[in-house]
Amino acid sequence: MRTVVAIALLVLACISPAIAADDMKAFPPAEQGTTRYVIALPNQDDEAALQVELIIGKVVKIDASNRYFFLGTLEVETIQGWGYPRYVLRELGPMAGTLMAVDPNAPRVERFVSVGGEPRLLRYNSRLPLVVYVPDGVEVRYRIWRADPSTTPAPRG
C-alpha cells in the first residue's frame, strides 16, 4: 500500500510543473513597451478567507510631506478559449497629489507611488497564476488579506 501511495505522489509531483507550464501557455508574452508580471500564490488551507490586493505604481522622487498617486485604470480581460483572467494597465497616467506647502530646500525622497482609486482586491487562487501586464518601468506589488475567523453580530434596528 505504501508503494502505491509513494508512486501516486511521485506522479503528482511530476505532473504539477507540467500543469503550471500549461497555464502559462494561455497568457501571451508581453508586447513591446510592456512587462508581464506573474504571481504564483502558494497553496493555503482556507483560500476562501484570503484575498490578493494588487498594488501598481513606481518609485519616484517626491517631497516627504504630500500624498501622491498616479492615474490609471486596471482592466480585466478574459483570455479567449481559456477563460482565464489577465489584468492590464495600458497606461500609467499623470501623477497627482495634495498641495501642502513644503520647504523648497527640503530634500526629495524616493517613495513607491501607486495608482489611485479603490483597492484592487482579487480572489485568492493558488491553482492559477495572477498575470499582470503593465507599461515598462511600472512595478507590480501585492499584499495578502486574511479574514478574521471571528464574526460580530450586527445590531437590529
Architecture overview:
The protein is of the alpha+beta class and about 160 residues long. It has a single domain (about 30-145), classed as Immunoglobulin-like (Sandwich). About 15% of the residues lie in helices and about 40% in strands. The chain has one helix and ten strands, in the order H-E-E-E-E-E-E-E-E-E-E. The strands form three sheets. A four-stranded mixed β-sheet has the order 1-9-5-4, with no helix packed on it. Strands 2, 7, 8 and 10 form a four-stranded antiparallel β-sheet that branches. Strands 3-6 form a two-stranded antiparallel sheet. Strand 4 and strand 5 form a beta hairpin. The protein is flat. Residues about 10-20 have low confidence and may be disordered.
What descriptive keywords fit this protein?
157 residues, alpha+beta, Immunoglobulin-like, 4-stranded mixed sheet, 4-stranded antiparallel sheet, 1 helix, 10 strands, 15% helix, flat
Briefly characterize the structure:
15% of the residues lie in helices and 38% in strands.
Gross morphology: flat
Order the strands across the largest sheet as they lie in space: 1-9-5-4
Order of helices and strands: HEEEEEEEEEE
* CATH homologous superfamily descriptor: Ecotin
What composes the largest sheet? 4 strands, mixed
> How helix-rich are the residues, as a percent range?
10-25%
Tally of individual helices: 1
Which CATH C-level class is it?
A: Mainly Beta
Whole-number mean pLDDT: 88
> How many DSSP E strands?
10
CA radius of gyration: 21 Å
- CATH architecture verdict: Sandwich
Tell me the number of structural domains: 1
Name the structural class. Answer: alpha+beta
Enumerate the spans where pLDDT stays under 50 for 5 or more consecutive residues: 8-21
